[in-house]
């Protein structure tokens, strides 16, 4: 997974563009934004994580990010992800979610988007 600040800013600003996809799950929301230059990122899956300060202190947010990175690597790699920049937004209730529930939620979001 690759991430750059300017690309993430572009994707986040264009997350509601007509060429992007969105699905709201129980614990996360997933945006798939069309890449500006998809041929440049043929062998790279790009994903950004957004964890709000409302979810908890830094240690809790870092734990959530570690879980989501692992899930994104496992689940997004299994899909045909070329040409999209994925943005994963968390909801407040993510702290109550187990790893299994997060995996199920992300899998459902990916299926609904594709």
Automatic annotation (TrEMBL):
It holds the Pfam family Ribonuclease_P. The keyword RNA-binding applies. GO terms for molecular function: 3'-tRNA processing endoribonuclease activity; ribonuclease P activity; tRNA binding. Coiled coil: none annotated. InterPro entries: Ribosomal_Su5_D2-typ_SF, Ribsml_uS5_D2-typ_fold_subgr, RNase_P. It comes from Candidatus Wolbachia massiliensis. This is Ribonuclease P protein component. Keywords: Endonuclease, Hydrolase, Nuclease, RNA-binding, tRNA processing. Its EC number is 3.1.26.5. Gene3D superfamilies: 3.30.230.10. GO terms for cellular component: ribonuclease P complex. The keyword Nuclease applies.
